[in-house]
Amino acid sequence: LLAGLFLLGLLLFGRRKGLMTILSLVLTCLAIFIVFVPAILAGYNAYAVSVITCLFIIAMTLSLVSGPSKKSLAAALGCAGGAVAGILSVVMDKLMKLTGYLNDETMYVSLLNEANPIDLKGIVFAAIVIGAMGATMDVAMDISSSLFEIHRKVPDISYSHLVQSGFTIGRDIMGTMANTLILAYIGSSLTTVLLYASYQASLSQLLNRELIIVELLQALSGSIGILCTIPISTFIASALCCLHKRNSHKCNSHKCES
User: How far apart are alpha carbons 89 and 93 in whole angstroms?
Assistant: First the structure.
């Protein structure tokens, strides 16, 4: 019933875009559960599969929801902030010497395919990248859409003014998005936090448990990825807007000469 209510709300409010949003949700779920999960279970490289899945979801979602346009291109390129989250996870994995054994479930996963064991550290990387992807795509589209709308209303606006507007919008987004992943991961591991708190575990004990460390790594890497998405999206969207303006001026000058 809740799913039906959600889909109905998308259709009533979004109309055609709501329909495209539903289609993108369906294709995203298929990409995760029909392609990504079976590929991991079959023993394929988790790093490569997660990156390919994320690239497909970004391209597919933005193409369906916003159509093939410069705005979609700017948002897609702005999602490079998600790559920062992935790079940070790999670096921190090396520094902290993670094993990937977080709980009983991860131990069972490691035994599913004994001939070709699943890379548990690759699963941590995939969780961070996929978790950050949705948030970075959201921020990138928010900024790109805002800047293209500003340019549509004020066609003569300069590149520097667009960049300033982008950073102003980005700061407002940052104020709430900085909490998004933190709260999401705290909410998902609330039972674990309550359990450790009931035993009055010290901070050093908590920080020596890999489950807690990976949750913190996911939240912080994803949040840094969001921060990087703001300037990347701003510069790219502003450049594409002004490129369109320069091309228009060239066309008008050619018409005048004719």
Answer: 6
Give me the numbers of helices (H) and strands (E) for the chain, helices first please.
Answer: 12, 0
Question: By C-alpha distance, which of 172, 153, 157, 141 is closest to 236?
Answer: 141
Which stretches of 119-202 are DSSP H helices? 120-153, 159-188, 190-198
Per-residue pLDDT tens digits for 80-135: 888 888 898 889 888 888 888 877 788 788 777 777 778 888 888 888 888 888 88
39 membership: H or E segment, kind and range: helix 37-41
Match 């228009």 to its residue by tokens.
248
Residue 50 burial class via C-beta count within 10 angstroms: exposed 0-12, middle 13-18, buried 19 and up: buried
Burial 67-79 (b: 16+ CB within 10 A, else e): eeebbbbbbbbbb
63 burial type by CB count under 10 A (0-12 exposed, 13-18 middle, 19+ buried)? middle
Please tell me which of 25-34, 60-69, 111-120, 132-141 the model is most confident about, judged by mean pLDDT. Answer: 25-34
Most distant CA atoms of the chain, gap in Å: 82
pTM of the model: 0.79
143-159 exposure pattern, b = at least 16 Cβ within 10 A, e = fewer: bbbbbbebbeeeeebee
Cα first-last separation, the chain:
63
Compute the C-alpha angle 175/189/138, nearest 5°. Answer: 35
